């Protein structure tokens, strides 16, 4: 199953986990599966139209899905998705 | 015409002169170069120290803060003897002690849209060592509009990011993050904590990138975002591309000047402890103490993480961490007066918004959090 890696600032929305196992053959389906597991995460991560909020990016391996096929980007079973939010600490 | 090195400088920089990629000419380039470091905190400290040691001839430091005890766990340019002093003056003194031959210019002011162009104008590279979103967007836009490279680093607990945003060569910060997160969603280091060594790692990477840019050697992080995880000890890169819809560096920019970034980021001002919900929803520690002394029935809700209760706590307060508050609203009575608090007032301001959205009206935020309570009411409690 694909994995979504969750960075520390967003882990409180997924019970503190570093990774969430998801099902789905596209990035969008994988995201939907994760949000079905953790519904309270949805308003923080997605706009009302289902697209990702502008402060967070989803990378498939090293490529931003925005530079691929967006939420329609196809996934292989062992793919790793990386959520990368903006952080401001310094 | 590059400046000559003195005999003393040749001796000081001998390990640089031995590297073919730097050599005598590179060291003279560094002497002729300049770098503006915005923020002299966790990230700015190692950046400033290494650039000074490397012989960057003109270093600018921007900060409006004073050195506090809680800074010294990570802000290594400052020392105990400088507590209470201006950060820029503390850092300037340390840098000139390290390298008296360089020029260090201190700007004891907040970096804002009103002064950014004036301050940044003479500098070759701009280094982002700030701790807040408004200044990060300001630095990015300034660098895009003036054609300067923005050396970027940011940290959170055990994780860090670094890149070079250089719109002439690749994407800018807005290409990656068109907008900041909603206020309160990504806590600051003051609320979430940070491993003291983390800014050392990320700041040193920023200093490395600045030196490479000034020397014109190597491959910079432009077009790449470095993701560092200290717990896993992992370094990963992701690729960054220019966003054709970018509002500042795209082909049809909407942003052609510096704007009001605090409004854009949905925060009220430079004071991180202020509640975004307005003063009428705040209660001071002294006001709360008086109400409790009068015997008023107030439910005190501590929204900090459980491990913070071992540092300090207020008797009678119940712990409902911010992350689980929304799921426990059923345990609260909207008819009862509620006062929310955290360490310094930021997380409890977010909690206040959650309660108000859920229809609670008799709810207030303890301004300044338990640290204000410790300063003004119960001085037996430690500040943290």
Question: Which secondary structure elements does this structure contain, and how are they paired or packed?
Answer:
The complex is a heterodimer of chains A (90) and B (384).
Chain A: E1 3-5, E2 19-21, H1 27-37, H2 42-45, E3 56-60, E4 63-64, E5 80-85
Parallel strand pairs in A: 1-5
Antiparallel strand pairs in A: 1-2, 3-4, 3-5
Chain B: H1 7-12, H2 14-17, H3 23-32, E1 34-38, H4 44-54, E2 58-62, H5 87-98, E3 103-107, H6 116-120, E4 125-128, H7 133-146, E5 150-156, E6 159-165, H8 173-176, H9 189-192, H10 198-215, E7 224-229, E8 234-239, H11 261-264, E9 282-283, H12 285-293, E10 298-302, E11 318-319, H13 322-325, E12 337-341, H14 346-357, E13 363-366, H15 369-376
Parallel strand pairs in B: 1-2, 1-4, 2-3, 4-5, 9-13, 10-11, 10-12, 12-13
Antiparallel strand pairs in B: 5-6, 6-7, 7-8
Mean pLDDT of chain B: 93
Oligomerization category of the chains in this entry:
heterodimer
Can you tell me the overall shape of chain B? globular
Percent helix of chain A: 10-25%
Strand runs of chain B, count: 13
H-E string of chain B:
HHHEHEHEHEHEEHHHEEHEHEEHEHEH
Given the C-alpha coordinates, what overall shape of chain A results? globular
Proportion of residues in extended strands of chain B? 15-25%
| CATH level 1 name of chain A | Alpha Beta
CATH superfamily of the largest domain in chain B: NAD(P)-binding Rossmann-like Domain
* Strand percentage of chain A: 15-25%
How many separate domains make up the residues of chain B? Answer: 2
Secondary-structure class of chain B:
alpha/beta
CATH architecture of chain A: Roll
Percent of residues in helices of chain B: 25-40%
**Helix count from the secondary structure assignment of chain B:** 15
Largest sheet of chain B: 8 strands, mixed
Question: Alpha-carbon distance between the termini of chain A?
Answer: 36 Å
Count of individual domains of chain A: 1
CATH topology of the largest domain in chain B: Rossmann fold
């Amino acid at each position: 199953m694909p994995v979504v890696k969750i960075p520390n600032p967003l882990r409180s929305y997924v019970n503190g986990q570093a990774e969430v196992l998801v099902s789905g053959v596209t990035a969008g389906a994988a995201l939907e599966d994760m949000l079905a597991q953790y519904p309270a995460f949805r308003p923080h991560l997605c706009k009302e139209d289902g697209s990702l909020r502008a402060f967070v990016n989803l990378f498939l391996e090293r490529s931003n899905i925005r530079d691929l096929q967006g939420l329609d980007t196809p996934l292989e079973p062992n793919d790793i998705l990386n959520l990368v939010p903006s952080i401001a600490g310094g | 015409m590059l400046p000559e090195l003195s005999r003393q400088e040749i001796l000081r920089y001998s390990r640089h002169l031995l590297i073919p990629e730097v050599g005598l000419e590179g060291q003279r380039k560094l002497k002729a170069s300049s770098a503006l470091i915005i923020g002299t905190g966790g990230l700015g400290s190692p950046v400033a120290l290494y650039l000074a040691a490397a012989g960057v001839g003109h270093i600018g430091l921007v900060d409006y803060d004073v050195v506090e005890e809680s800074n010294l766990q990570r802000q290594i340019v400052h020392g105990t003897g400088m507590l209470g002093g201006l950060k820029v003056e503390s850092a300037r003194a340390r840098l000139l002690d390290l390298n008296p031959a360089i020029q260090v210019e201190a700007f004891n002011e907040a970096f804002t849209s009103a002064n950014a162009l004036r301050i940044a104008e003479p500098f070759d590279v701009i280094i982002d060592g700030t701790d807040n979103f408004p200044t990060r967007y300001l630095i990015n836009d300034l660098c895009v509009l003036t054609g300067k490279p923005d050396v970027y680093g940011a940290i959170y607990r055990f994780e860090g990011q670094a890149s070079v945003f250089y719109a002439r060569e690749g994407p800018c910060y807005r290409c990656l993050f068109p907008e900041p997160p909603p206020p309160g969603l990504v806590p600051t280091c003051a609320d979430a904590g940070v491993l003291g060594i983390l800014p050392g790692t990320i700041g040193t990477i920023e200093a490395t990138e600045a030196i490479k840019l000034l020397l014109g050697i190597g491959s910079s992080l432009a077009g790449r975002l470095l993701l560092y995880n200290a717990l896993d000890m992992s370094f990963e890169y992701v690729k960054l591309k220019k966003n054709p819809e970018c509002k500042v560096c795209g082909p049809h920019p909407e942003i052609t000047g510096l704007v009001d970034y605090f409004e854009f980021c949905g925060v009220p001002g430079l004071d991180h402890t202020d509640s975004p919900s307005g003063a009428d929803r705040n209660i001071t520690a002294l006001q709360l103490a008086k109400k409790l002394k009068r015997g008023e029935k107030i439910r005190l809700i501590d929204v900090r993480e459980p491990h913070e209760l071992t540092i300090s706590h207020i008797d009678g307060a119940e712990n409902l961490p911010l992350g689980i508050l929304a799921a426990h609203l059923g345990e609260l009575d909207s008819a009862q007066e509620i006062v929310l608090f955290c360490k310094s007032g930021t997380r409890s301001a977010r909690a206040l918004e959650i309660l108000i959205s859920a229809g609670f009206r008799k709810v207030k935020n303890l301004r300044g959090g338990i640290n204000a309570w410790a300063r003004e009411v119960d001085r037996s409690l430690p500040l943290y």
